[in-house]
Amino acid sequence: MGDFFVVINLQNSQFNSKEELSFCLNIGVALTEKLADKEKKKATLFDIATELREDAYLTEDRKQLKKFKGGWLGYKITDTTNTSDFIADFKIDLEDNILMRLDQLKTLNDCVVFYEKFDYWGDNLKRQIKECGLKLLDTNACP
Question: What predicted TM-score, i.e. pTM, was given to this entire model?
């Protein structure tokens, strides 16, 4: 997106087994200027300035449903999980919630507005924007 990347990282549990698999999504934005990759061709989990899990992007109803069905890490698949139902639920979370919200992040201003409700991560993003000397359209958004 020019000054930033949107990053989605799938993290599985080290305790996964044949009987139970848990995973979560680490999601956020990474500033292009701060990327560890000096060629600035890709962003990784370690570059994210606003590292939040999937729940931050879900509606309250989706959070409750996921909590009811999910594992301790986020999502859970067991040997008794109906795979078709799981895929349908996960697709709703990913396409209708997470990607829809991320698609609204067109500018750094959009990112600041979205992430400022997450105190630490919003402040971290603003700090990194200042460190990089990047400009925002709304000068009040990043004091």
Answer: 0.87
